[in-house]
Amino acid sequence: MCDRRIPYSSIMNRAEADLLKRIDFLLQDPGIALHLNAIADRVEEKFQNSKEPLAWEDVPLEIYGDELPQEIRSSWIFLLRANSNSGAERHPNSHQRVAAWRGVADFQVWIDDRWQTNLLSPDFGRPLQERWASIPVDTWHRAIVGPGNHWIVVSFHTAKTEDLIEERPDPKQSDKFERRIYKHM
To answer: What pTM, to 2 d.p., does this model score?
Structure first.
């Protein structure tokens, strides 16, 4: 695991920071938080009997009302198992934004030929860059979750749920990022 923080300016400009502030403000709305917590609880409940490293559920965009930025076309709740690595992935057709919802984890992004760390916390009192990661189209990323609690995030994509493409490295060549496509349905 790399011990360097991602230089925030290298992954986010002012327009991106403003967009994340708008979404972050929505996540703090008690009505929206109630819906997200209900979905997170459902995902956790389904996950209890699973051996999979992660679980997810789509979030209906309607819960965010009319304030969600227009470019956001899907939202998800993801749960990653404690003491796990999500594995590298990228999305060739979507810019992804991820906010910690429950727990803290190391959300790593492949920048300058190495994994760079970005510790994400669900504490709304923390600076934006310690709560959010912004992952441009076609950028490799992964989550490293330590022991203790599972990590739950709220994720936003510019691709619709039915169109989102996830690429993973070739499992036979762990040091090479080969194209394998999994389409979420």
So the answer is: 0.86
